[in-house]
Specification:
By secondary structure, the chain is of the alpha/beta class. Helices cover 59% and strands 14% of the residues.
């Protein structure tokens, strides 16, 4: 397989030097070089426009240009062509400047002929090819970087839009959840108001009517002319009226205990735990240090009372406890309620995972009430280890009643 000869543009104004150089290169590499000779830069420029060369051997002393201008003009005319300066000027500064302008090698006539020049030509070509490949790689890398920058900017813009949309959706969802919580709070407040109204109606109107009926029955029974059979019937009606009055009193209390509105949470809880202990036969320890120092808001008191009552109801139905304790405590920024029993307990985590059941609805109802009041409720329990309900609500007080302004009277002067 034949190797194609290197096409060399030899720019040399001395025909004898040009011939000597060609002869020495032919001896070094027979058939390895194909020369085109130019004796001036104008002639060399003409060849460059008409032909393609692999390398240029350039003398710095030409009839139409000399010195540094020679390689500067050559590099401008042929920016991609390997150039080897071959000159009689042994000037190190000129050689360094030539290299800075992209000249591949700088040889001194008389010192570099034959094999050395052939190696310099081959090296210049290889170096130029490496430089060209490196530039192409750099250009390709820069294009990749530019494309990557574009993709990053596009992706960043997409992520920014997605994030903005997500934030808007989250804000909308938060507003919807807050609206839902507000609706639930209003429903709970309306329920408590209606409970209070019905409780008062039962206690005040129906209770008074039953009391009046019982008094009338007593008067009828005490009349001397009343037959024995009628007296017995009247006595039964009195007993029925007593039971109805007790049931109405109990329903009225369950709907909305008057003590909660009139005397506060501590009194309502104390009565609730006393009645629960009497009904269940299980003693209840109630501790409420400092709670009545100042009335909490109606929402907070109602929430704590309802959760405590629900927790006691669960103990009565499911726990088989021997003892129950209720702790109501006020701290610097919150009020806490702890209801604890020593009953059989249950798997709280499993209970909250299963579909809705009566017991689970009670647990969820306590948590929902606490959440609506801006707090939290946690249930800790395990089989055989009892159950503890932890409730924590932010501290909120009823506004202090405004005191009437007092006027002072100055004594003195003429009465």
């Amino acid at each position: 397989m034949s190797v194609e000869a290197v096409r060399v543009l030899l720019v040399e104004d001395s025909p004898s030097d040009a011939g000597l150089l060609q002869e020495s290169l032919a001896q070094a590499e027979a058939g390895g070089f194909d020369f085109t000779h130019a004796e001036s830069w104008a002639e060399a420029a003409g060849h460059l426009r008409r032909q393609r060369f692999d390398v240029m051997l350039l003398d710095l002393s030409l009839p139409d240009i000399t010195g540094r201008d020679t390689f500067i003009r050559a590099r401008a005319e042929a920016p991609e062509l390997p150039i080897v300066v071959l000159t009689g000027q042994a000037d190190e500064a000129v050689g360094l400047e030539a290299v800075r302008h992209g000249i591949q090698d700088y040889l001194i006539k008389g010192q570099a002929f034959g094999r050395q020049t052939a190696r310099a030509i081959r090296y210049a070509i290889e170096r130029k090819q490496a430089e060209t490949a490196l530039k192409a790689a750099d250009a390709s890398l820069q294009r990749e970087r530019d494309q990557l920058d574009v993709r990053v900017r596009e992706r960043t813009a997409e992520l920014s839009e997605a994030n903005t949309a997500l934030q808007a959706e989250m804000a909308q969802r938060q507003r919807a959840e807050e609206s839902q919580r507000e609706v639930l709070r209003r429903l709970v407040a309306a329920e408590e108001t209606e409970r209070g109204r019905v409780s008062r109606e039962l206690h005040d109107r129906l209770g008074q009517d039953l009391t009046a009926m019982k008094l009338g029955l007593q008067i009828l029974r005490k009349q001397g002319a009343c037959p024995p059979a009628l007296r017995e019937s009247v006595g039964k009606l009195e007993s029925l009226a007593d039971r109805l009055m007790q049931d109405i009193h109990r329903l009225s209390w369950e709907l909305r205990p008057a003590a909660l509105d009139d005397f506060g949470l501590e009194m309502a809880l104390r009565r609730c735990t006393d009645e629960w202990a009497a009904l269940s036969g299980v003693p209840v320890d109630l501790h409420s240090p400092g709670v009545n120092a100042r009335r909490l808001t109606r929402e907070v008191e109602t929430t704590l009372y309802r959760i405590a009552r629900e927790a006691l109801t669960n103990v009565f139905r499911h726990a088989s406890a021997r003892r129950v304790s209720v702790l109501l405590e006020r701290r610097a920024d919150h009020v806490s309620l702890i209801v604890e029993d020593d009953g059989r307990g249950f798997d709280a985590a499993a209970m909250l995972r299963v579909p809705a059941t009566e017991g689970k609805l009670g647990l969820l109802g306590m948590q929902e009430r606490a959440t609506l009041a801006g707090g939290s409720a946690e249930i800790e329990s395990s089989r055989g280890a009892g159950t503890t309900v932890f409730v924590r609500l932010p501290l909120a007080f009823e506004p202090e009643p405004t005191k009437p302004a007092t006027t002072s009277r100055k004594h003195g002067g003429k009465k």
